[in-house]
Amino acid sequence: MAERKITLEELSQHVKDTDTWMAINGTVWDITGFAGIHPGGPDIIQEYSGRDASEPYNSVHSLKLAENNFEASQRIGILDAEFVADKPRMENTRNPRLENDLPQIDEIINLDDLEAAAEKCLNKRSWAYFSGASNDSFTKADNADFYRKIFLRPRVARAVQDIDTKTKILDDVYDVPIFNAPASLMMLAHPDAEMALAKGFAASGSTIIIPTLSSFSTEEIIEALPAGHPFYFQLYVNPNKAALKKMVDSLCKLRPKAIIVTADLPVFSKREANERYEKRIAKQKRASEPRETTAEKQGGQARSAGVSIDPNLCWSNIKQLKERTGIPVFVKGIQCAEDALQAWKIGCKGIYISNHGGRAADTAQPTILTLAEIRLHYPFILEEMEVFIDGGVRRGSDVLKAICLGAKGVCLGRPFFYALMYGEEGVRYTMQLLKDELETAMQLCGITSLSEAHTGLLNTRELYRDVESPQSLSSKL
Ligand SMILES: Cc1cc2nc3c(=O)[nH]c(=O)nc-3n(C[C@H](O)[C@H](O)[C@H](O)COP(=O)(O)O)c2cc1C
């Protein structure tokens, strides 16, 4: 049966909270009630209710995501309009997300070069979103700076020509211990977003941690991986019980190696770079109309994503998730030894030490210090659980330091957004760059396998000066 055609005029009549339509890439959907559960917040949905939302939709979502998310019964018909915004295409292989031409990829010789290219080439909104942190960005800076408090203590004359960087996590062996730190809205860096990330990581002998707020559907991303390739899933626990159940049910079918529950962002933090950007743009747009939307007041996309994160998430919910799914659970956002112990006590298989790259509580201690704290107070956790860490890792030698202190997987967030400016090639290139640096650091320290990494290769005196003392720890448990 031919689908019903809907004119722009008819579409524009469906704007009430109880009767809302929206057109996306030529299809008209009944999205009544969706504003309240849209992961990106209600404002953009309200703004585009009764309109063709293809352009904002395509800037952060894959073509199929809406079809996967909405029920067939919500499909009203097709838009009867001459112009339907098209998905941004890679004309002449130029990434449409960029404002300036990228340097040749082989001019990038370290991650600082990559970041400098991102600052120059990304559009201002994406740069503010990716590079920003909360409040004064102290934690973001400390995450990286604290790696410099650890000195290497290289061993010499150890025959280091043949080297491998394999790591085993759960039952899987990866060629490198390096993963993406899961992050939302990757399509702001490149139209291929997580598809390029998945392919690039698999080709590099690692795998992807798929974020809840991905631009492509989880199914699409898994299809980009070689058949049977392991993957992880980062879960934001949705406060809407029905939406959470739908997601958990589908995860049970897709069988990630572990569900990584992000717990460090119960409420949205103050992201000032975003806030400034959104306010500036809003001012330009509404020179004649002083009304602010909630999103503008709160910093646009930075805060609006908060609707998909449950502020009442508790350890008991994490335990239930583990029991209900039978899939290993890791807790992401561990920022002190006490919470690492708590995760161990409820039977989590892993901890993921993170402070959200300084995007959650500003002045939270740097992540490498948290790892040292856990090592000092509860060393058995590092033996019995899988340990991931992220935050400020920018060199292969940082990866080695984290592994010497007990991490199994080391993740990078912002650098892979920036790598994505070059698509899949950028992800592979960045992985190779980090692998080369890691291998060289290992060889210069006199080891040929990560199983030989140990704290004796490090001088951590300066780091341990800042580690929380046993007295204050036990009194706060
Ligand atoms: C732009 C951006 C978006 C992020 N989105 C998420 C997310 O959706 N879920 C999550 O658990 N962490 C998210 N994070 C935090 C990262 O997983 C990671 O903790 C952080 O980026 C690590 O610090 P680094 O960027 O210094 O490597 C995001 C980070 C950035 C920079």
TrEMBL record:
<dbReference type="Pfam" id="PF00173">
    <property type="entry name" value="Cyt-b5"/>
</dbReference>
<dbReference type="InterPro" id="IPR036400">
    <property type="entry name" value="Cyt_B5-like_heme/steroid_sf"/>
</dbReference>
<feature type="region of interest" description="Disordered">
    <location>
        <begin position="279"/>
        <end position="305"/>
    </location>
</feature>
<feature type="domain" description="FMN hydroxy acid dehydrogenase">
    <location>
        <begin position="103"/>
        <end position="463"/>
    </location>
</feature>
<keyword id="KW-0560">Oxidoreductase</keyword>
<feature type="compositionally biased region" description="Basic and acidic residues">
    <location>
        <begin position="279"/>
        <end position="295"/>
    </location>
</feature>
<dbReference type="Pfam" id="PF01070">
    <property type="entry name" value="FMN_dh"/>
</dbReference>
<dbReference type="InterPro" id="IPR037396">
    <property type="entry name" value="FMN_HAD"/>
</dbReference>
<feature type="domain" description="Cytochrome b5 heme-binding">
    <location>
        <begin position="3"/>
        <end position="80"/>
    </location>
</feature>
<dbReference type="InterPro" id="IPR000262">
    <property type="entry name" value="FMN-dep_DH"/>
</dbReference>
<dbReference type="InterPro" id="IPR001199">
    <property type="entry name" value="Cyt_B5-like_heme/steroid-bd"/>
</dbReference>
<dbReference type="GO" id="GO:0016491">
    <property type="term" value="F:oxidoreductase activity"/>
</dbReference>
<protein>
    <recommendedName>
        <fullName>Cytochrome b5 heme-binding domain-containing protein</fullName>
    </recommendedName>
</protein>
<dbReference type="InterPro" id="IPR013785">
    <property type="entry name" value="Aldolase_TIM"/>
</dbReference>
